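Justification of computing resources. Each target in the renewal requires a structure prediction run like the one illustrated here; the chain below, 194 residues long, is used simply to show the kind of job we budget for.
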Amino acid sequence: MKRIGLIVATLLFAGIFTAQISAQTAQAGIKVAIIDSQAFASDKGITKYVNALKALDTEFAPKTKELSDIQTRLNQLAEDIKKMQSNPAVPVKPEDIQAKQDEGQRLARELDFKKKEAEATAQRRSEVVLGPIMQDIGRALQTYATSKGYTVVFDFDKIGQGILAFDPKADITAEFIAYYNTRPATAATAAAPR
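Resulting structure tokens:
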């Protein structure tokens, strides 16, 4: 019940906020645009960003495979234990089941540790590789918005649930991606060394 009340309050607030912005926009001549930053990583997105993401995927492929292999082994152990316990016609020593359970617990701890370690490493590496590109995209977006006369550009990915309706002409995502991809390469967007 609280959730429905929260949703209604959010919609009411968004409606009032939208009406106020519309009134202010009409009075002040504010030009507003929307961009969907998630599109930057799509096949038709920002080439430098997409290439950096692919490079990170390639870099972390061995670690991803290692984690997948451990998970596969864990699943196999669980299946082995289930088979051992499901056939009463075949006698099984309790210590055999316990050995498999112990191995499964050891692998689960190892998997958890390695996942956390891989996530932390991937986060640090992403900041090094993607950080300069994202900063360059931000600068280019500011330049683009100023050159086109936009007072405000909202990121649909970040506030999409708060937008109840908008004119599709306000979405400048494709235009900005085309603009960015035609710009000359800069040193800031080159992939950082390891």
